[in-house]
Amino acid sequence: MPEEYLANLDDKAFQARWDDSLATSQWPSSGTLVAEEAGRAVGYTRFYPTDDDDDDSAAVGTVGSLYTLPEVWGTGVGKVLMTAVVDALTGAGYSEATLWVLRGNRRAREFYRRQGWSEDGGLTEDLSDGFLVTKLRYRRLLAERL
Q: Distance between CA atoms of 25 and 28, rounded to whole angstroms?
């Protein structure tokens, strides 16, 4: 993302989107998980039924976001969040999960690959924020519920 775009994010609008996201979560099919260290949030992940036209929202869940603070990169926090969100998706009864990642985000793409995700050929390009963003879709099968 361009630095100028990030620097000009509207805090109030961002807070309103978070408030809406948290208020509309419908556990267990959607939710937000937060990683904390010493009482401070250091990462989060969100999940919900897919909204991709080529998937069934009853069977496929989406990891809508997974972010950690740069200061905890490489410490295992991301892996813990990924394990937790995969467990939540599995517990919700989804048989597969998808996520979208920026094509240029090689660090994240490698992280997802190490966690058992792989590209499935889905690609989208978006200009809604005034600059081109290309995203690749990753997918993984989820463990069957016992």
A: 9
